Amino acid sequence: MVELIERHGEWREQQVNNWLRRPEVVLNTIGEPESSPYSRELIYERARWKRDEEKLLYWGASYGSILGATFAAMQPHRVKRVVVDGVADAPDYYRGDWLKNLQDTDIILDRFCEYCYRGGPERCALYTGTSPQAIKVHYKNVVASIKTEPVAVPASSTRGPEIITWSDVKLMVREAIYRPMERFEQMAELLADLSHRNGSAFADYKQQGRNRVVVSPKCREAGLYSIECQGDGISAENGNPGILCTDGESLENMTQEAYRTYWRVLQGQSELIGDSWAQIRLACIGWNIRPKWRFGGPIASNTAHPLLFIGNTWDPVTPLRNAHNMARGFNGSVVLQQDSEGHCSYAFPSLCTAKTVRRYFQTGELPKPGTVCDPDRRPFLNAGRNEWELERTDLSSEDRILMDTLRQLAVAEA
Question: Is the predicted pLDDT of residue 42 greater than 70, yes or no?
Answer without folding.
Answer: yes
